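Hi C.,

You asked whether I'd gotten around to modeling the 83-residue construct. I have! Everything is below, sequence then structure, no commentary in between.
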Amino acid sequence: MDKRIELIEERNKRVELDKKWETSFTRRICICVLTYFVVVLYSYIISKVDNIWLSSLVPVIGFTLSTLSLNFIRKIWMKSINN
């Protein structure tokens, strides 16, 4: 019985750490940086973009804003489900 409880507690710690990672500022920054460089690379490959570095910011900003707004929408959705 003690072993089962210990396994459950270890699992709960992993799940809690995963949740923290999903909402962490570090994760968001990493996603933004990776997205930025992928868009820069894509823009360079198609080479029809005048200012690659500046134009590559547009999708990154859009993605970041969408992730921020999804938290807000999620909270509204959770309230509506609980009612």
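If it helps when you're writing up: Helices lie at 2-22, 25-46, 52-55, 57-82.

Thanks,
B.
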